Each structure stands twice: as C-alpha cells, then as structure tokens.
Amino acid sequence: MILKSGGIAAAIAFAFLSAISVPAIAQDSAEAACGTDRTIDIAEMTWPSAAALAHIHAKILEAGFECDVAIVTGDTVPTTSSMVTRGSPAVAPELWTSTVQDQWDSATADGSVTKLGEAITDGTIEGWFIPRYTREAHPEIVSAETAIANPSVFPDPEDSGKGRLYSCPPGWGCELATTALFDAYDMSGAWTLFSPGSGGALDASIARAFTREEPILFYYWGPTAILGKFDAVALDMGEAKPEVYACNTDPDCDEPAGVTAYPSSPAIVGAATGSAKKRPMWLSISPRSA
Known about the structure:
This protein is 37% helix and 20% strand. By secondary structure, it is α/β, with parallel strands linked by helices. α1 packs parallel to α2 (48-65). The longest helix has 21 residues, at 6-26. The protein is globular and about 60 Å long. Residues 1-32, 275-281 and 286-290 have low confidence and may be disordered.
C-alpha cells in the first residue's frame, strides 16, 4: 500500500525506530512507562491505510512502552460516536472528520476527544471518478451532471436499462454523502446506486473494469493505491458547500438532500480523552507515535 502522504511514511519510520530504540530508553526513563494498566483499544478501520496505521500504533505502544493494546474493528461514524459517548476506542489512527464534523468539534470543545496529529499530511480528496479511456471516448463527460445525463455509458450489468454508480461501502461516512447526492441529483429513475459491500469489493470492481477497459462511474477517495495505480479522472462536482454536506451526512437532518462537492476532509489521529478531570496518562505518550 503506497500513499501520497508524508504522514504514514513518517509513522512507519517511527514505528521501526521505536521498536528498536525505545525499550532501551525505557529501562532508564519513567516517562516511557505506559502510564495505565488499562487496555488501550485502537480502531482498525476497513480501508488499507487506516488498518496499517492501527497496527503501527499498536506496535509502538506494545514494543516501545509495554502497553496492553487491543485492535478493534471501526468505521468513521460508529467509531466517532463510540469515542464521544463511551470513551472507546481510545485511538482512531486515521479519522476522516468531515462526515462527523459537528459531533467531533463539539466533543473536542468539551474535552472528551482530542486530535493527536495528522494522519495524512498532504491533503485528501473525495469524489466521483471515471477512467481516462472513458473520458477520451466521451469527452462530453466532464462533470457529475454530464455523467448523470449519460447512463447508457455506464450500464448496470444487472439492469442494462440503467446506469450504475458504485457507491461507498456500508457503514462508512461517505455512504451517507453519496446516497444523499444520488437523491439530490434525482438519479433513481435511470441509475442504480450499487453498494459494493466492502472496501475490498469496491477495489475489485474498479480493478476489474480498468483491466477490461470497461466504463465505470465510482466513488473513491485519495490518496490511495487505487488512484495511484489506475488512470482515473475526477468529475467536476461543483462547489463544496459545508452546510449542505453537513446535512447530507447527518441522519437526523430534516432538510432535503442537496448538491455539493465532497469537501477535503482532515484525516487525523483522534483519541478519546475521558473526562477532563481524569485524563488518561497514555495520551502523553501517543503523540510521539503519530
């Protein structure tokens, strides 16, 4: 997995250095002690870079500080909700906060969560993509609107009378955003919003289409290996409207879904701090691993 990001590269380098050098320091420094006898649970999200970072953080805390660590399954929305309401998991090593921004900001303000650092330092992108060979064959398709107007270019294998948009996997924050856009663009008559079931299944669908040089319209994000490996073109989705996007990704928002581009999301190392009066001591260690 190769990312266009200084964050993961630095984390990997630090992981190796920590595993080698910190135990020796730990013999002489009380600072290197874990500082808690509680298990530190780390969220392993279901996309590759976040999964890698979860294991890097776990290795640092286990080998470098002799902490008791558990890897737990996570995804953006449920993990954030659990961190805010239950204080668990303790760490989310790659948390894309745009889809949970209001909840995250509120929890940051009251001290129940905190940002330990940047997981991806070079910026993030999200949007709808098509292969470059499809763009070259259909130069008129340059935006979400022009793609939507041409469902026959992206036929649904299970219903050739409709186009297919490959959406975000269930449980991911981007599933809410993509479903809302599908509704906002009124695509249901001529299009199928296809759920791939998992990040791996989405990757497999994209790889299969590119290998066969077939047209495909799909949601994706970056920096990622898929966008590095395959020559995909991002469609123009217009202006990013934070208020519209916030409503689109809030299941409790009563406003109709609106048209907006996906904003560039911060991708952070997030942590649950517990109550402000009883801040877990391991938080003084974790930033060194970010």
